[in-house]
Amino acid sequence: xxxxxxxxxxxxDPEDPGVLDYAIARAKAEGARLLLVHILEWSPYSFLxxxxxxxxxxxxxxxxxxxxxxxxAPALAKCEAAGVTADGLIRYGQVVELIVEExxxxxxxxxxxxxxxxxxxxxxxxxxxxxxLAQIAPVPTVIVP
Length: 145
Known about the structure:
Structural class: alpha/beta
Strand content: 15-25%
Distance between the termini: 28 Å
Radius of gyration: 16 Å
Strand order of the largest sheet: 3-2-1-4-5
């Protein structure tokens, strides 16, 4: 068994399991473990009052619990069913920066990311995650169609 870790930048779209399926296949073939990373985009708006920021932080806990239940738990169960060792992380913040940070922490050798085509407007505003990872990732990034 390999000691490699593959990071999966996982959006959790059940209609598009391509990146998770591909990462599972690669991990099985190479005996690697997976680290699924799901990022809830968040930025602190400077115009919010302290009370509004506090309310927003309170909603974060609910959003994290929901993301764990609806996104991460099913993905980890799928990995387990396939016989692949996997862990999951859910974080808040800037997607590309946090995926790179978790990749470095894990000492991962590859990042798998799906091609973002579903939300073209968001990509124009916030930037494309695959393109961002291709530009700053410290390891090879595989963009899965």
